[in-house]
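User: Here's a protein and a ligand (flavin-adenine dinucleotide). What would the complex look like?
Assistant: Let me lay out the input and then the predicted complex.
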Amino acid sequence: MIPNTFGINATADQVVAIQNESHLQEVLASGTIGRLPHLVVGGGSNLVFTRPFPGVVLLMQNKGVAVLAEDPLERKVSVKVSAGEILDDFVHLAVARGWHGMENLVAIPGTVGAAPVQNVGAYGVEAKDVVQEVNAYEIATGKKRIFSNADCRFGYRDSVFKHEFKDLYVVESVVFSLSLDFDPNLNYAALASLEKPVTPESLVEGIANLRWSKLPRPEEIGSAGSFFKNPIVTASHFEKLKSEYPDIVAYPAGDGFKLAAGWLIEHSGWKGKNLGKCGVYEKQALVLVNRGGCTGEDVLRLASAVEADVQAKFGVLLEKEAIIV
Ligand SMILES: Cc1cc2nc3c(=O)[nH]c(=O)nc-3n(C[C@H](O)[C@H](O)[C@H](O)COP(=O)(O)OP(=O)(O)OC[C@H]3O[C@@H](n4cnc5c(N)ncnc54)[C@H](O)[C@@H]3O)c2cc1C
């Protein structure tokens, strides 16, 4: 079975578990994988499998952490981390070693290799703030390429690996640029509740507690995290919604407004409701969950029903954040 946090029974024609860089080079050398349908999987924390995958899955299990350079004057350290390392494990290791900047990314499920692809983010910090370089291999040719931070063209949960290089590269490792000084990012409103003074340890513990108070732990309840993106609407659309629903949750975004998709779903009556074996999480309506034995089709059926009701009530089209396979 291919690992996935939704807990869906997922299979593929072939699964190749990549153990290290030379193994990856060997696997890509013949060029066969580039000619077949292929999918790179880390922890499967953002994937919803709706069918047996008709091709090869490269399952990234390469491990390793190495300090490349430390500059005591600049107070910086560059650390290379293999793609198959668990991101949360590295966040904890970094705190233990006195490398700072990734504390706010604690408890995000998944691997280091997916972090730049997704530009993962939480509590005011994104992968783009700490990624120095991404070492990747072109799947078709097996050629290595180093992407600088700028090359990655990071956006909100977005990068070049989701657009022009989608499915073309496999990330082998990520070099993070971290600080030897602790200068916590506490800008996110919810962090005001943390006890002061904040230490690296209390920050990761506090954020992990905040996260798990409203998100389902994958080992207990299956999900892919936030299932929908927060939609952006025009200012006039927002004004119309605001006059009808004064408590609507939204933030200015460019010329328009970003609406909280969870609020829209909740106010469409879906929070805590199920359709078949899939449900809308009772503590956070943005998350669809496995109620036991859920299939990819169950997820899509519920997602379509939620999308239709939100569209009918608010005139807003929800876009999926989870990747449908
Ligand atoms: C409970 C829960 C909470 C979550 N909270 C957050 C959150 O706060 N913030 C956030 O940003 N995300 C969150 N997520 C989503 C998820 O954690 C991230 O998307 C994470 O980066 C997925 O990592 P993964 O290794 O599981 O990737 P996968 O789900 O296996 O893959 C995701 C995508 O990345 C690609 N990919 C994976 N590894 C590689 C690689 N080595 N090379 C090339 N491509 C690769 C895959 O092909 C796929 O397109 C949450 C998920 C869950 C289940």
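Summary: The CA atoms of residues 239 and 257 lie 10 Å apart.
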